[in-house]
Backbone:
């Protein structure tokens, strides 16, 4: 009789807490952090399941479908955001007893050249700036770009380029000898291609 009561009590305990007794109730969120996402369009999936759209500037994500402990997960990117590239870190594994905490999506927004034309520059000394980026323009130049190639590990970014969706504003930091230069069409918002419509006129 005592063993019958014991078995009954154990069965009730398992019914109230299946996870503790080896059950597989889906009761945990699958979520993670998002870094550097500045554009809409990112869509992810778990195990090829329903897509989850993540909006621009999101700091994290949560799949609406719950998972159980000891469940396999594999988060992949179905669609990349515009002018960006995202990758999933720690996106494949098995959930523990208390959820999944180490998943992260890291995104990089593409950057593009910014430049234009120059007229009347017949002396040295002209320096243009865009924020912290500075470009020395030699005498006789008829075009310019703020881009200055530098050694980068990923080979994709160059000093002076402007990320898609970010503002820019080119101004004259230093005038050339004996001339006064002005900038037209020097400010705006960078789009998904290079801009070369800035006009510098020296008189």
Residues:
């Amino acid at each position: 009789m005592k063993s019958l009561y014991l078995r009954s009590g154990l069965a009730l305990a398992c019914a109230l807490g299946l996870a503790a007794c080896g059950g597989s109730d889906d009761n945990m969120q699958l979520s993670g952090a998002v870094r550097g996402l500045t554009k809409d369009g990112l869509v992810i999936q778990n195990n090829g399941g329903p897509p989850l759209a993540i909006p621009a500037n999101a700091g994290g994500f949560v799949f609406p479908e719950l998972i159980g402990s000891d469940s396999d997960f594999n988060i992949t990117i179905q669609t990349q955001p515009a002018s960006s590239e995202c990758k999933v870190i720690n996106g494949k594994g098995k959930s523990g007893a208390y959820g999944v905490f180490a998943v992260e999506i890291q995104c990089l927004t593409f950057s593009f050249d910014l430049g234009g034309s120059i007229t009347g520059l017949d002396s040295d000394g002209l320096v243009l700036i865009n924020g912290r980026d500075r470009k020395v323009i030699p005498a006789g130049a008829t075009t310019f770009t703020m881009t200055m190639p530098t050694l980068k590990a990923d080979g994709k970014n160059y000093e002076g380029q402007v990320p898609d969706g970010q503002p820019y504003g080119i101004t004259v930091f230093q005038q050339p000898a004996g001339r006064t230069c002005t900038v037209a069409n020097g400010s705006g918002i960078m789009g998904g291609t290079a801009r070369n419509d800035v006009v510098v006129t020296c008189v």
About this structure: The two ends are 107 Å apart (CA to CA).
